[in-house]
Write a structure and sequence with these properties.
The chain has about 290 residues and is of the alpha+beta class. The protein has eight helices and 15 strands. About 25% of the residues lie in helices and about 20% in strands.
Length: about 290
C-alpha cells in the first residue's frame, strides 16, 4: 500500500504508574491477555458551519494522584479519580471488557485499560489469544464507522457503479496527493468491480491552505464530480465559496486517526491505509469474506 504521508501532533495517554504482569506467570486457559503497544490520537480545530463535526479535545494529565482510588460498587474505576487524573477524558467512554478486572477507556482511536482501583493504566491492544483477534481493533472499527456515519450521502462526493454495488469505500482524499490522483485516474477499474467510491476531503496542508480552498471550490461547483476530476488532474477549478462540509470532514479524518492520504475505510470501519489497485483490493475483500 502507498499513500501521501502526514505527521499529526497527537496525544498519548500517560499515567505515572503502569503495571505489566510478569511473563513468567502462568495464564489460565481462555483468559485474554493485554499486549502493550504505543497509541496516540490526533486532534484539530473545528469549523463553524452546519456541517462541522464535534472535535475531540485532548490534553495531557494535569493532576497526579498519589494514592489509588476506590472502585465503585459495580467494580468500575472511580469516575472521580479518572477525571482528576485525566480532566479531558469523558467518563462515558469507560466500558467493561471481556478480560476480568480490566476497564476500557479511550480518546478517539487511542485506547487504554484500567484496573478497578483506577490506579494502573495499560496502553495498547487487548488480544483474544483463542481467536487471535484484537478486541481493541474491533472497537476502533466501530468508532471509525460512527464518525463516517455522521455524513449523509449528500455530504460526500460519490461515484457509483452502473450495475450492482458490491462494496462501498469511504476515502479521505486530498486533491494534491499523488496517490489520491492515481486512485482517481483508475476510478473506472473500481466501478467495474462493483466498488462504489465515496469521497471525504482531507486537505493535508490544513485549513486556509490552497488545497483546502480548492476542496471548498470543488464542493461549491455546479458539477462536483467534474470539478473533483479536474482538480485531481491538476487543472484549475473556478474559486467559489458556499456552506460546505470540508472542515467537518477534515476533523473527521483526525477523529479516525488518519496519518496520510488516501485513507480508505470499508463500510464496517476497517481501515486500509494508502492506495491499493482495484484488482488487489477485490482479492482482499473476497479473502476476508466481505
Amino acid at each position: 500500500m502507498s499513500g501521501c504521508e502526514q505527521g499529526l501532533s497527537g496525544t498519548v495517554l500517560h499515567h505515572k504508574s503502569i503495571a505489566v504482569n510478569s511473563m513468567n506467570r502462568r495464564l489460565p486457559a481462555g483468559i485474554l491477555t493485554v499486549i502493550v503497544l504505543s497509541l496516540a490520537a490526533g486532534c484539530g480545530e473545528a469549523g463553524q458551519n452546519k456541517y462541522t463535526a464535534k472535535a475531540e479535545v485532548e490534553s495531557t494529565p494535569k493532576t497526579e494522584v498519589e494514592e489509588p482510588g476506590a472502585a465503585t460498587p459495580d467494580g468500575a474505576p472511580s469516575v472521580e479519580l479518572l477525571t482528576a487524573v485525566y480532566p479531558s477524558l469523558d467518563p462515558e467512554t469507560l466500558r467493561e471488557t471481556a478480560a476480568s478486572g480490566l476497564w476500557e477507556v479511550n480518546q478517539g482511536t487511542a485506547y487504554g485499560y484500567l484496573t478497578p482501583d483506577g490506579r494502573y493504566l495499560i496502553q495498547g491492544d487487548l488480544v483474544d489469544l483463542q481467536t487471535g483477534e484484537s478486541l481493541t481493533e474491533q472497537r476502533r472499527n466501530e468508532s471509525r464507522k460512527s464518525v463516517v456515519d455522521q455524513f449523509d450521502a449528500d455530504q460526500m462526493i460519490s461515484f457509483a457503479p452502473k450495475g450492482e454495488t458490491k462494496h462501498d469505500l469511504y476515502i479521505f482524499t486530498d486533491v494534491d496527493c499523488g496517490y489520491c490522483r492515481k486512485l482517481h485516474r483508475e476510478l473506472d477499474d473500481y466501478l467495474a468491480k462493483g466498488i462504489a467510491i465515496h469521497y471525504l476531503f482531507y486537505p493535508r496542508s490544513g485549513p486556509g491552505s490552497a488545497s483546502f480552498k480548492t476542496a471548498e471550490s470543488v464542493w461549491c461547483a455546479d458539477d462536483r464530480q467534474a470539478a473533483l476530476t479536474r482538480a485531481k488532474a491538476n487543472q484549475s477549478v473556478e474559486p467559489k465559496q458556499c456552506d460546505n462540509p470540508i472542515m467537518a470532514q477534515y476533523m473527521a479524518g483526525q477523529q479516525v486517526g488518519l496519518r496520510g492520504t488516501p485513507m480508505i475505510l470499508l463500510a464496517d470501519g476497517t481501515v486500509i491505509n494508502g492506495y491499493m489497485p482495484a484488482a488487489r483490493l477485490e482479492e482482499r475483500l473476497k479473502a476476508e469474506g466481505l
